[in-house]
Amino acid sequence: MNAMQEQLFWELRKTQIEILRSLKNKQKNEWMIPILEDELSDISTAIQKLEEGNFGQCEASGEPLPEHLIKIMPTMKSSKDSDNLEHFYKKPINSGFF
Questions:
Q1: Cα–Cα distance between 69 and 49 in angstroms, integer?
Q2: In 3D, which of 18, 68, 76 has the Cα closest to residue 46?
Q3: Residue 64 three-state SS
Q4: How far is 50 from 56, CA to CA, in rounded Å?
Q5: What 8-state DSSP symbol labels residue 78?
Q6: Which residues, in sequence order, are bridge partners of residue 57?
Q7: pLDDT in single tens digits along all 98 residues of the chain
Q8: What residues contact residue 43 under an 8 Å CB cut-off, 6+ apart?
Q9: Of 41, 55, 40, 44, whose CA–CA distance to 5 is shortest?
Q10: Reduced to 3 DSSP states, what percent helix, strand and coil does the chain have, rounded to the nearest 5?
């Protein structure tokens, strides 16, 4: 594992633990459970790939995924996943308004 992968590994493990705690907590909305379970599955897959040494490869083509995209979405499985990233971008506040 390189340094970036090591950092992502620990971030994924921390998130995995937080989601598991949340799922054990009975004080949550029922609609959240499938979302948390899906995210937990994606995180587990990414951790397994890190441990096996095939993290960062497109599942469809086998080609390396761009590192800058993996840093944004470490659970991405293929280059098509990057099409969904635009939904997660935050819009900067235009400093011209101040």
A1: 16
A2: 76
A3: strand
A4: 8
A5: S
A6: 64
A7: 789 999 999 999 999 999 999 888 877 688 888 888 999 999 999 999 999 999 999 998 989 998 988 888 899 998 887 776 665 555 555 544 43
A8: 12, 15, 16, 19, 75
A9: 55
A10: 60, 0, 35
pLDDT at 95: 44
Contact in structure between 46 and 10 (CB atoms under 8 Å): no
- Judge contact between 65 and 47, C-beta under 8 A: no
Task: Please tell me the predicted confidence (pLDDT) of residue 81.
Answer: 78
* Residue 44, pLDDT score: 96
CB atoms inside a 10 Å sphere around CB 12: 20
Rounded to two decimals, what is the model's pTM?
0.78
Q: Which token pair is 2? A: 């390189």
